[in-house]
């Protein structure tokens, strides 16, 4: 199969080092990536589906496949809802602008989830729904979007919460990085499932966690410990000093945090 992407495999917000790690894993499984390549046309033929792709130099090639999966991103589904009939404002991308209480420009109409700004994730929308209704009945609505995790359900999985190294660097925040390879994790070795890495980004001066990125078979499960820690303002040392059961894949997160705060992991 072939993956046709822009700069590298992954999704919005993914860390570049982590994206490259995933790409290497998928290439070992036989996947081919054609980067900086755009699809010019696709048609069904007697031999399958014929795709014409063009690289950034303008060179075209023909790819034949059994199945073509079109993934061009998502857009808010706000057309034909009758919003214009009642005067609800929509921006040029089709999203509904809201305030911190999720109110639209019409104060008794609220909007959450995929039709407003932010990542189009079910768990983000669910939390917004709860917080929105709590605000309606007098609560103080608050959601930390830096602590909303993202997961790519490949094998190995990729998961992250917080900022990528590129975003931290662009913001001019002083930072340090700790990494730990799954190849050094006992449970992963026992399971013969050692592809992947854990990458922890912490503030260079305060040690506060800024972003955690995981590539491994159970990254989508591990990321929730990271999200909990970041929600409570934890430092890399905080996770590093929590006793993790052995042998478990979660020890890789602890080791990466040790590397971030102390400069070196214990078991690598």
Which helices and strands, and how do they pair?
Layout: E1 2-5, H1 16-28, E2 32-35, E3 37-45, E4 48-55, E5 60-65, H2 83-86, H3 122-136, E6 150-152, E7 157-162, H4 165-170, E8 175-181, H5 186-190, E9 197-203, E10 209-216, H6 219-231, H7 236-240, H8 251-262
Parallel strand pairs: 1-2
Antiparallel strand pairs: 3-4, 4-5, 6-7, 7-10, 8-9, 9-10
Explain what the structure shows.
- With 268 residues, the protein is α+β, with helices and mostly antiparallel strands.
- Helix content is 27%, strand content 23%.
- It has helices at 16-28, 83-86, 122-136, 165-170, 186-190, 219-231, 236-240, 251-262; strands at residues 2-5, 32-35, 37-45, 48-55, 60-65, 150-152, 157-162, 175-181, 197-203, 209-216.
- The strands form 3 sheets. The protein has a 5-stranded antiparallel beta sheet, with helices on both faces. A 3-stranded antiparallel beta sheet has the order 3-4-5, with no helix packed on it.
- The longest helix is centred in the middle third of the chain and has 15 residues, at 122-136.
- The chain is flat.
- The two termini are 35 Å apart.
């Amino acid at each position: 199969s072939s993956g046709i992407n822009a700069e590298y495999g992954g999704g919005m917000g993914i860390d570049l080092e982590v994206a490259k790690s995933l790409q290497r894993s998928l290439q070992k499984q036989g996947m081919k990536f054609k980067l900086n390549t755009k699809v010019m046309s696709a048609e069904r033929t007697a031999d399958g589906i014929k795709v014409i792709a063009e690289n950034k130099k303008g060179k075209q090639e023909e790819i034949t496949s059994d199945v073509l999966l079109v993934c061009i991103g998502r857009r808010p589904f706000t057309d034909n809802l009758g919003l214009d009939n009642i005067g609800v404002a929509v921006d040029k991308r089709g999203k509904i602008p809201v305030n911190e209480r999720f109110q639209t420009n019409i104060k008794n109409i609220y909007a959450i989830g995929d039709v407003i700004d932010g990542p189009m994730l079910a768990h983000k929308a669910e939390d917004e729904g709860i917080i929105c209704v709590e605000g309606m009945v007098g609560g103080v609505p608050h959601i930390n979007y830096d602590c909303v995790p993202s997961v790519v359900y490949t094998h190995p999985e990729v998961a992250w919460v917080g900022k990528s190294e590129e975003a931290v660097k662009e913001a001019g925040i002083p930072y340090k990085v700790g990494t730990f390879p799954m190849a050094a994790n006992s449970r992963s070795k026992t399971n013969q499932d050692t592809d992947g890495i854990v990458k922890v980004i912490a503030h260079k001066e305060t040690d506060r966690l800024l972003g955690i990125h995981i590539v491994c078979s159970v990254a989508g499960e591990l990321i929730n410990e990271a999200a909990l820690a970041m929600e409570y303002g934890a430092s890399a040392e905080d996770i590093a000093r929590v006793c993790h059961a052995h042998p478990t894949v979660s020890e890789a997160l602890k080791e990466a945090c040790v590397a971030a705060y102390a400069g070196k992991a214990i078991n690598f």
